[in-house]
Amino acid sequence: MINKPISRRSFLKITGLTIAVSATPFGYNVINASAQKEGSFKPNVWFEITPDNKITITLGISEMGQGSSTALPMIIADELEADWKQVRIQQGPASGAFKNPVFDDQITVGSASVRGFYEPLRKAGASGRAMLIKAAAQNWKVPEGECQAFNGTVKHKKSNRSLTYGQLCLKAAKLEIPKDPPLKNESEFRYIGKSMPRLDIPAKVSGAAIFGLDVNVPDMLYAAIARPPAYGAKPISYDQKAAEGVKGVRTAFPTPQGIFVCAESLDAAWKGREALKVKWDQGTHPSMNTDSIEKHFMEGLNKQGAIAKNVGDVKKALSGASKKVEANYFVPFVAHATMEPMNCTAHVQKDRCDIWAPTQAQILGQIFASQISGLPMDKIHIHTTFLGCGLGRRGAFPDFIIEAVIASKAVGKPVKVVWSREEDIKYDFYRAATCQKIEAGLDSQGRLIAWSHKVACSSILKFLNPAWIKDGVDFFSLWGIVDAPIPPVYSHTVYEFPNFYVEQYLSDLPIPVAPWRSVQNAPNAFVMECFMDELAHAAGKDPVEFRMHLLSNNMRARRVLQTVAEKAGWGKPVPKGKGRGIAQHSCFGSYVAQVADVSVNEKDGTIKVDRIVAAVDCGPAVNPNAVVAQIEGSVVEGVSTALKEQVEFGNGGVKTANFNDYHIIRMSEIPEIEVHIVKSNEAIGGIGEPGVPPTAPAVGNAIFNATGARIRRIPFTPERVLAAIKSNKT
Amino acid sequence: MISLNVNGKNYRVNVSDDMPLLWVIRDYLKLTGTKYGCGIGECGACTVHIDGKAERSCAIPVKKAQGRKIVTIEGLPENHPVKRAWIKEQVVQCGYCQPGIMMQVAALISSKPKPSADQVINAMDDVICRCGTYPRIKRGIKAALEIMRKEG
């Protein structure tokens, strides 16, 4: 949808051909921004061709390892018919011009960067190409049809003339944006679909890449914050004098976030925080611990919830079923634990506020910084650094930005707030815990006829945006079970159940939760896909065949399932002590199925995941090697949550504190991973997250296959595995 | 005053003796390639070479590093087999942990040019990558060893 070409004749200066894409509430516009007034066009520049023959692409998305900062330039360069060697990238500011059409916001979440910008950037690139061709044709006074763009030049074959994009850009800049520029055919792609080396990797290998923690502003102070050890705890007393007496500490002051200590070095700030010796009250939930939390969710299953889905007549269908299957599942809180802990540097001045942040949500940061500093939005300058992983933590409530702005405003200097690893784990917004009960009915032929599902869970939307809770239902927390009544950009369930009932009880625990790579798709897929396996066995059917029957109208889901089954040797025998399990899930526009092979040590209960085979349909794979990398990383994280990760609570707060008690998978524990990209011309899907959900259930189903023991909660710790094997034998 | 030799250069810094070497390298010498991950030597993001051995700079008081030869990721030559292998195999995702991981690998393969699978795992289980690049780290190590073997 390219509408209303904006041509401004009252420009002051043209520096080159500048094309912008701007999201609108109903789509997007491609704009020739060359002719805008100097100083006003910069923020919405997407790419600019300059007379030095360079193409500078400005990115509004955050690069956190997902590779979009290479994929988006590939899309532009391909349609523009640029020479890849001409392409430079730079990070853009917070600006409405960088809003992703998927959300109408500048936010890098929901596996949406390539998916949201694929079409707009193809059109933007194609517009640039058409304008350069037109400029060359006018220059040579020949028909446009006789001119061809190739690798950064326009050629006129008949007269054997050519001009580079650099030579043409000033003339092209004066042309109107074409209404319907011809897009390339797939066979003409030169970058899209080819594995291109990532543009961000060299700086990350040399050590020169700047992450949030690496920002250095002259005259900057460091801030540490003493935070409550229990939810809702308030300080009873603290020794401000002792803190301010520590060498290098400038000041200490209380805020609702905790007690800030600002110092000349981080070491001094941390020592000053120690010296505060804060005494806290016991908080609002002093007896809350890991066990009480699990009990709370179990009890939630018996409490009245809100109805999220009601199709057919589940009660009637269940009562008429030949066979009923019932099970309870539990998934605990999991931490983001990004390798770069939360941090931010801010400098609040009288007339502007600069923020250097590893953030996934620039405009959200701007909004909060504006409120705290009292400065208007356009005076808040967000400088996005590289992100040392995001996983959703840096796209939710921007606490790290808020703290840096508070600190800088208070001391009148630039301040860098750095969270210790302990703070990063204890004050995370976790992946939401969930406890679920399913009752399902099979008919005499083993066909699924009823599915009744009760979910007790933490509510992501209570923390993210309570206004989005609809009739008491938090659909964010149900992704993968039922779809929200909004366009299916995050969750698109694939099974068809003739009688289907879903009820949700939202927990009122004070533990904050937020999106965690794939949001609740992963915990919910664990429940859905393990239970699907239970049903297949109850029906006496092969798990692939059983699923296929419920996917008769979903070719994409069928195809990844079929592909993974073939590639993994599904149906072939596995040796004793080993097991094989399958699971599939679709979200963010992509479809992924995985087969896990595991070895179970029945003596000590340890699980080794030997191999994961994955098949993915994400529509066009823009940078295939990067797609494979995302699936590999997702599988590794999926295995990590399946075997190891769980946040522990005690005395009304978080007990888990660092990597010595919050265990993350290490190299010896990873499986061999095989990724098969299914060739697909379907709509483009996201790739950062959809690889996570199928892993844990595939592993769980493989453990069942190996041992006959069904473990309905993660992580599959050795104790839990031993207990399940033992109870299965008795 | 503490005297440090980092990447072949001598520095004098006015910091307390017990400040972790990591923060001196990052915040005083402004060599920010070395990262903070945990502060307790569990994750390896802060790995540097001290007298040729991979060490956790977050857990070493700066005083103890005095008079020793320290190399950070910035001091590892651009044509070092590990750096070249990391680009060739496209190992990196977010990249935050990778300088420490590359320093861990560089120390491993310089002391053991033909490491056994167990020796690789033993060394590499001391580091954490949250993006899950482990499969590519494995390939990167193989590629780096191959470059070393070919070029002697």
Description:
The complex is a heterodimer of chains A (730) and B (152). The model of chain A is unreliable at 1-12 and 37-44 (pLDDT under 50). The longest helix of chain A is centred in the first third of the chain and has 28 residues, at 113-140. Chain A folds into three domains: 17-194, Aldehyde Oxidoreductase, domain 4 (2-Layer Sandwich); 212-282 and 342-418, 2-Layer Sandwich (Aldehyde Oxidoreductase, domain 4), CATH 3.30.365.10; 290-334 and 430-729, Aldehyde Oxidoreductase, domain 4 (2-Layer Sandwich), CATH 3.30.365. Chain A starts with 16 loop residues before the first strand and ends with a helix. In chain A, the strands form seven sheets. Chain A has a seven-stranded mixed beta sheet, with helices on both faces. With 730 residues, chain A is an alpha+beta fold. In chain A, β24 (590-600) and β25 (607-617) form a beta hairpin. In chain B, β1 and β2 (9-13) form a beta hairpin. Chain B has a five-stranded mixed beta sheet, sandwiched between helices. Helix content of chain B is 39%, strand content 14%. In chain B, α3 (81-88) crosses α6 (134-151). Chain B folds into two domains: 2-75, Roll (Ubiquitin-like (UB roll)), CATH 3.10.20.30; 81-151, [2Fe-2S]-binding domain (DNA polymerase, domain 1). At the A-B interface, α4 and α16 of A face α1, α3, α4 and α6 of B.
